[in-house]
Structure formats: C-alpha cells, structure tokens
Design goal:
- With about 350 residues, the protein is of the alpha/beta class.
- The protein folds into three domains: about 30-105; about 150-200, no CATH class; about 200-339, STAS domain (Transcription Regulator spoIIAA), CATH 3.30.750.24.
- The chain is about 55% helix and about 10% strand.
- The protein has helices at about 5, 30-60, 65-80, 90-100, 105-120, 130-145, 150-160, 160-175, 180-195, 240-255, 275-290, 300-310, 310-315, 325-339; strands spanning about 200-205, 215, 230-235, 260-265, 295, 320.
- Helix 2 crosses helix 3 (about 65-80) and helix 4 (about 90-100) packs across helix 6 (about 130-145).
- The chain is elongated.
- The mean pLDDT is about 85.
- It is a multi-pass membrane protein.
- This is STAS domain protein.
- Keywords: Membrane, Transmembrane, Transmembrane helix.
- Its main location: membrane.
- It is found in: Membrane.
C-alpha cells in the first residue's frame, strides 16, 4: 500500500528497540515547575483508569479494589519514569479488547505485556503497512459494546442533578476529549455537592402514637405539643448550611408563641464544624431571650466531643438527652407540672 498515492494512512515505521533504563536527574526547580501539571495528570489518570476498571468490572460482575488499582498505577508510572516513558493510565480500548478476548485473571495482562515486548523487538515490520482504519475499526467495535444509554436515562429520572453531571461529562468526553470531559464532570459534581450540602433537609417531627419513633409531621399522623417543637437535621452541619438551620428554627418559633422548648434531634448529624457550633450558640442566645430552652438529643460521639470543647455545652439553656423519646417525655412532664 502506497499511502502517498492512495491517500491511505498506514501505521508506518515502528522503532524496534526498547528505551534505555536510567533514573532522571533530580532538579528542585524543575520539580516545583512541573508539580501542578503532574498533580493534574495523576488525578485525571487515576479517575480515568478507575472509571474504565469500574465499567469492565460491572460488565464482568467482578469486584473492584480501588486501592489496588492506585498502587498498580503508581508502580507503572515509576517504571515509566525510569525508561523515558509517557505517563501511564488505563486504556479504554485496550481494556475492552483484552476483556473481549476472554481475559479472566491479571495473568492476561502479564502475557499481553510480554507479547508486546516481543512484537516491539522482532515483529514491528509486519505492521508497517497496516492501515490505521483497520486499527480504528477494531477499537470502535470493541468499545461499542460498553456504550449503554439506559444508565443516563435512569440517573436523570432519579436525580436531575446527578443526571446533569453525568450528561455533561459524557458530552465533554465525546465532543472535546477525555481529560476535559473528566475535569468538567469533577467540577460540576463538586459544585452540585456544595449546593446539596447548603440546602439540608430539615423536618419538624412528632411522636408516632403507640411507639417511641418520631417522623415528619408533613408525612405522618403524629402527636405534637404546643409547648415543644422538635427538629431533625438530615445533614452534617457546616458553614455552608448552619444559617439555613437558624433561619428555619426562628421561622417556626415565630409562628408559635406558646413554645417553651426547642429540641434538635442530632441522630443524622455525624460531623459539625466551628461555624455551625457558633451558629448553634447564636440560636441558643436568641431563644433564651424569648424564654425558650434549646435542647439536643441523640448526639453522636464525634459531634459530642466537639460540643464539649465548645462554649455551647456550658451556655446551653436546656439539656442534652440520650434519646429523643426521653427528651419529649421529660419536657412534657415538666411543662405539665408548671401548668
């Protein structure tokens, strides 16, 4: 095949030798200069490789160890660094071809590597006149089996936010390139995560009759008291959402002039930062000015450790209860006694 005459691009001459092994020279100025780019390459390579591994594992119904993948990727890049190789990452096309060929164990990768070395040393001449279109067709046919639109549709139906991130990543990878698409997906997912955290689900809860369980008053028939209002926060508290909790509590309190107690059920809170602690202190002060006591219930150990270190526990107008049921029982009896 004469590519210059028939306009058919071929693989061309392939060097039939392996690069020499040597350790790169260590230069701190060069390290500092390349570190930001190296970090981005490492992050994108790992995410891309993990995505490929997950897709293949799902197809083969195998378990995936992400730590093992990271270690393998690191060792491969160390080996590439001492023989003048490019940065190593998972290859979608080669992974699919390997899987479709019947690979079952990691030994398939070892044998494939050995075969590649032998071919690179002694048989590169056989591929010199191979049209690139043949290679492209092989890759396209192999990858086509991995393309399924059902997860995109199901994700969009389940969550518009997750669907948006998924479609944006897919379009970025398809229309631009893999790196840009993954960066778009990472940034968009991070933004959506911040958006979700900043909009925590807060419910006013009441006691389900005949039980010790509490549920959202909007969805269940529950028992409530005009003297006591209970809130459940279904999110960790941080500077992103603490102001939302304060605004919600103040709004609910302002609608009930008979309130004497506010109880926050902390069963769904696993972490709390300094800004959220300060916001709880502000809530405690504002409620105290209205002669309303603030109580906490079902506080988890990691959160309790931080509460003890803060000024909130010392200044808390109410109590910290082990269970929410205990809180409602004691506060109800206390309110009845005062009446």
């Amino acid at each position: 095949i004469n590519s210059s005459h028939y306009s058919i691009q071929t693989v061309g001459v392939i060097p039939s030798a392996l690069p020499s092994f040597h350790f790169p020279s260590w230069n701190w100025n060069l390290v500092i200069q390349l570190l930001p780019s190296a970090f981005m390459i490492a992050m994108i390579s790992f995410i891309e490789s993990l995505a490929i591994a997950q897709a293949t594992a799902l197809k083969k119904r195998d378990d995936l160890n992400s730590n093992q993948e990271l270690i393998a990727l690191g060792l491969a890049n160390i080996a590439a660094g001492i023989n003048s190789g490019f940065a190593v990452s998972g290859s979608l096309s080669r992974t699919v071809v390997n899987a479709d060929a019947g690979a079952k164990t990691p030994m398939a990768g070892v044998l494939s590597s050995i075969l590649m070395i032998v071919v690179s040393l002694y048989f590169t001449g056989f591929f010199q006149n191979l049209p690139l279109a043949v290679l492209a067709a092989t890759i396209v046919v192999s990858i086509w089996k991995l393309i399924t639109l059902s997860p995109f549709i199901e994700t969009w139906r389940y969550s518009k936010a997750d669907g948006l991130a998924m479609w944006a990543t897919f379009i970025g990878v398809t229309c631009i390139d893999i790196t840009t698409g993954l960066i778009i997906g990472i940034i968009l997912t991070f933004v959506l995560l911040l958006w979700r955290v900043s909009r925590p689900h807060i419910a006013v809860i009441g006691l389900v009759e005949g039980t010790q369980h509490f549920r959202n008053i909007s969805h269940y028939k529950v028992i409530t008291s005009p003297d006591i209002i209970s809130f459940r926060v279904d999110e960790n508290l941080s500077f992103l959402n603490a102001h939302v909790l304060k605004g919600y509590i103040i709004t609910q309190v302002s609608q009930n002039p008979q309130l004497q107690h506010v109880v926050i059920n902390c069963s769904s809170i696993s972490n709390i930062d300094l800004s959220a602690l300060e916001m709880l202190e502000e809530i405690n002060i504002e409620l105290s000015l209205l002669n309303i006591q603030l109580h906490l219930s079902e506080v988890k150990s990691p959160v309790m450790e931080k509460l003890i270190k803060s000024a909130l526990i010392k200044e808390l107008s109410g109590q910290v209860f082990l269970t929410h049921y205990q809180a409602i029982q004691q506060l109800s009896e206390s309110s009845a006694t005062k009446k």
